[in-house]
Amino acid sequence: MTTSYEALVAEMERISTVIQKFPENLQGKVFDIMVKSYLGEQGYGYEAAATEEPETETVQHISVVDSNRVQSIKKRPIRRNKDSYSMVKDLDLLGKSGVEPFRDYLERYEVNSNIKFNTVAVYYLKNVLHIPDVTIDHIYTCYKNGERKVPGNLRQSITDTSSSKYGYINMSDNHITLSVLGENLVEFELKQEA
Fold first, then answer.
1. Does any domain span residue 185?
2. Mean pLDDT per 10-residue section of the chain, whose length is 194 residues
3. Which residues, at least 6 apart from 38, have a Cβ–Cβ distance to it below 8 Å?
4. Residue 164 carries which DSSP code?
5. Is the sign of the CA dihedral 165, 171, 172, 178 positive or negative?
6. Which residue, of 11, 70, 169, 172, is most buried by count of CB atoms within 10 Å of its CB?
7. 153 within a domain of the structure (yes/no)
8. How many angstroms separate the CA atoms of 167 and 179, rounded?
9. Residue-range definition of the domain harbouring residue 136
10. The domain spanning residue 184 has which CATH number?
11. Which residue, among 123, 190, 115, has the nearest Cα to 160 in the 3D structure?
């Protein structure tokens, strides 16, 4: 491949423009790939930084689409939730003790998010079943009994419900209580079917 000095300078200017679009920690690799692509494998004496220790980044692959555009394909590691929960066996959600079954109670409300479900579940556990210490396992049992998909990270879902954005419940260690905002949500704001 014969490359004139002027063509090389023009290409290097284009490469530098493209490189600016990438995060700083990727710019060196993008440069190496683009120059290698432009000059060919022999690189006219240019030795890519491939001999260096590879960085442990979340980027798995960078590919050159053409000399004007570089496409980066990022693959973030998937964080799996390793928490496990158990059903509370003695929790009467079926109404055997004469209280309204949880599923029937749930149907009275328009529960279209996990935030609202968590709040209604805590309200039911506290005010209908009179459970003094509600835990994540209690809410997990409600998800299972209510035939609702358990969030991938139930603890985070409950934390979100207790966050300053919503504030419907309070969570301290593993003990969950209902806030006034949560009571108001269930009693007044969620659409009830009568």
1. yes
2. 74 84 81 80 48 46 55 63 87 94 93 96 96 96 94 94 95 92 94 60
3. 11, 15, 67
4. T
5. positive
6. 169
7. yes
8. 7
9. 102-189
10. 1.10.460.10
11. 115
